[in-house]
Amino acid sequence: MKRIKFFACALALGLALVGCTAFCFGAASTPGPSSSTAPAAPERVVLFDTDSIKITLDGLKTTVEDKPGGTVYTFRKTLTVRTSTPTLEERQARALGRVSADTDTIKIVVSGDLIAVTDKTAGLNYYIH
After folding, report:
1. Order of strands, sheet of 44-49, starting from the edge strand that comes earlier in the sequence
2. pLDDT in tens, 37-95
3. Which of 57, 55, 75 minimizes the C-alpha distance to 65?
4. Could you tell me the residue ranges of all domains in the chain?
5. Sign, Cα dihedral of 14, 20, 26, 29
6. Does pLDDT of 11 surpass 70?
7. Which residues contact 106 (CB under 8 A, 6 or more apart)?
8. Strands (E) located in the chain
9. Euclidean distance between CA atoms 22 and 8, whole angstroms
10. Which residue of 27, 72, 83, 99 pairs with 22 in a disulfide if CB–CB is 3.0 to 4.6 A?
11. Which residues pair with residue 118 across a beta bridge?
12. Distance CA 14, CA 37 (A)
């Protein structure tokens, strides 16, 4: 029994020594940008750009531009941390779609974190998650 305890203690001490040595000599560090530099801003991505509509993602912000109508709609995704389980009514309210815009050229429906854009002039549907 004493041999097993001695072996376990020696193994733990050896692993700690290897970890400390790797940390001190930089073997455990990974190459990359230094911590003093700020993280890069999220890149702006144009998802769709047609004659009648332009949809752009910029981080957590989604922009839908109605070119014939000359209006721009902006949606921002928010992250929420909950400590309790949502009720059935809250889940149902989130699942139901809400019409954000309905013009002659475009219709935007938001359901939870899904944005459904209908381009009425081209007869196309776009879904942004």
Report:
1. 44-49, 53-58, 61-66, 71-76
2. 656 667 889 999 999 999 999 988 999 999 998 999 999 888 778 888 889 988 888 88
3. 55
4. 44-128
5. positive
6. no
7. 52, 53, 64, 66, 69, 117, 118, 119, 120
8. 44-49, 53-58, 61-66, 71-76, 98-102, 106-111, 114-119, 124-128
9. 21
10. 27
11. 107, 125
12. 36
- Cβ-contact 83, 94 below 8 angstroms: no
Reported residue count of the chain is 129
Cα dihedral 81, 78, 98, 96 sign: negative
pLDDT of residue 116: 93
Distance CA 65, CA 71 (A): 6
Instruction: Judge contact between 55 and 63, C-beta under 8 A.
Output: yes
Tokens 């013009």 belong to residue: 103
